[in-house]
Amino acid sequence: MSKYNLIRGEAFIGGECISVIEDSGFTNVEHVITELLLSLSDDIPRPIKVQIKITNLDKRQIQLYQRTIR
After folding, report:
1. Most CB within 10 Å of its CB: which of 33, 42, 44, 48?
2. Would residue 38 be called left, alpha or beta, if left means φ above 0 and alpha means ψ between -120 and 50 degrees?
3. Are the C-beta atoms of 22 and 10 separated by less than 8 Å?
4. 15: which residues sit within 8 A by CB, 6+ positions away?
5. In what helix (H) or strand (E) does residue 36 lie, and over which residues does it extend?
6. Where does 2-60 show beta strands of DSSP type E?
7. Sheet strand arrangement including 7-13
8. What torsion do the CA atoms of 26, 31, 33, 35 make, to the nearest 10 degrees?
9. Residue 9: predicted pLDDT
10. Average pLDDT estimate for 15-29
11. How many Cβ atoms sit within 10 Å of the Cβ of residue 4?
């Protein structure tokens, strides 16, 4: 991942998309995941598993991740 690539991050809970970010300037996957999780609403019950889809729009590559937020 290059900071010049356009990246789209999507967070899902139970198959429903709850947050989307799209920007360039991310240096690694954890940077994208951190920004995406910070954008989540505070009213989401915790702990909960969040599925994350990261798409490099320039290279058309998709990566899937899962995190538990507490």
Report:
1. 33
2. alpha
3. no
4. none
5. helix 29-38
6. 7-13, 16-23, 48-56
7. 16-23, 7-13, 48-56, 61-69
8. -80
9. 98
10. 96
11. 8
